[in-house]
Design a protein that fits this description.
By secondary structure, this protein is of the alpha/beta class. The protein is 30% helix and 17% strand. It has two domains: 107 residues, NAD(P)-binding Rossmann-like Domain (Rossmann fold); 183 residues, NAD(P)-binding Rossmann-like Domain (Rossmann fold, 3-Layer(aba) Sandwich), CATH 3.40.50.720. The longest helix has 19 residues.
């Protein structure tokens, strides 16, 4: 049986890394597939259902990125009902995203934006200083990535608020203030000087930050979105920036993505756009994780983690 690899970019790097990790497997770089009937696994960032349906013995699809939005429609395709979709959960990507969140929260907590403005005025002085201990960071979505983000900030002395859809009873750090469910969302938002969104795109998270919830943000709050752009409508976000309470929005993701050239996000003085770079897939570590899952399947074991279409991730 064979494996088809269909990366969005850096194809040579992917093939070299996967060949090293899976020396006994037969790998084809898409659109080369060999005999379609022998294709057992597909490794891809994105691939059309019609193309996947052309492999009659396809058993699993492995995502080459952390997001899974692009794979959810496959669950509704009867031709692919028996195909397992395996997520990529890579600690190296979580580290990248934690570093991204640290950078931007520090940038505004330490007032580096104001220092840049003072430099332009030829002034060498200090803005008002806010200590980390007085700058609570709220993590919207306390899963694998959210926990890593929380660890990074906790190490530097920031208080952490964590919001989840449901209450987790196995929280490893009792020093973190946990919030759960829609009934506690506004309290979570108002208690956080910075809110970092890492929620996936699901029916429950789409439009979660509605106008009334944006109003619940603390005055002067920083919003960092590295989850999905669907969590907030562009017009509502801009209104919260123009009229309060938001101080700034750092957007690694938007809806639509990319935003059209006419989008006011490009010109707004309190918006930073970073082009979906918060959690870049690192090929060496990702290839090891994917190879380990393939070896699990070869041993008759279950891969981890598998996409749950009902939950949306």
């Amino acid at each position: 049986m064979t494996i088809v690899v269909n990366p969005a970019s850096r194809a040579k790097e992917w093939m070299a890394a996967l060949t090293e990790q899976l020396p006994n497997e037969s790998l084809f770089l898409w659109p080369q597939v060999g005999d379609p009937a022998r294709v057992e696994y597909v490794l891809a960032w994105q691939m059309a259902a019609d193309d996947l349906a052309g492999f009659p013995n396809l058993a699993a699809v492995f995502s080459l990125g952390a997001g899974v939005d692009q794979w959810l429609p496959l669950a509704e395709d009867e031709r692919l009902a028996d195909v397992t979709i395996v997520r990529l959960v890579d600690p190296a990507v979580s580290d990248e995203m934690a570093a991204y969140a640290l950078h931007w929260v520090l940038h505004y907590q330490r007032r580096f934006d104001q220092m840049a403005a003072l430099q332009q005025q030829r002034q060498f002085t200090q803005p008002d200083y806010v200590e980390a201990a007085d700058f609570a960071v709220g993590i919207l979505g306390y899963g694998n990535i959210g926990r890593r983000v929380g660890e990074a900030f906790t190490t530097l002395g920031y208080p952490i608020n964590a919001w989840s859809r449901t209450l987790h009873h196995d929280q490893p750090d009792p020093s973190i203030d946990h919030y759960a469910g829609l009934e506690e969302l506004n309290d979570f938002l108002s208690a956080s000087q910075a809110v970092v969104n890492v929620l996936p795109n699901t029916a429950e998270t789409t439009g979660l930050l509605s106008p009334d919830r944006l109003d619940a943000f603390a005055d002067g709050a920083v919003f960092v979105n590295m989850g999905r752009g669907t969590v907030v409508r562009e017009a509502d976000l801009l209104a919260a920036l123009d009229n309060g309470p938001l101080r700034v929005a750092v957007l690694d993701v938007t809806e639509p993505e990319p935003p059209p050239p006419s989008s006011p996000l490009f010109d707004h003085p309190n918006v930073v756009l970073t082009g979906h770079t918060a959690g870049v897939t690192l090929i060496p570590s990702a290839s090891r994780i994917i190879a380990a899952n393939i070896k699990r399947l070869r041993r008759g074991e279950e891969p981890y983690p598998v996409v749950d279409a009902g939950r949306g991730y």
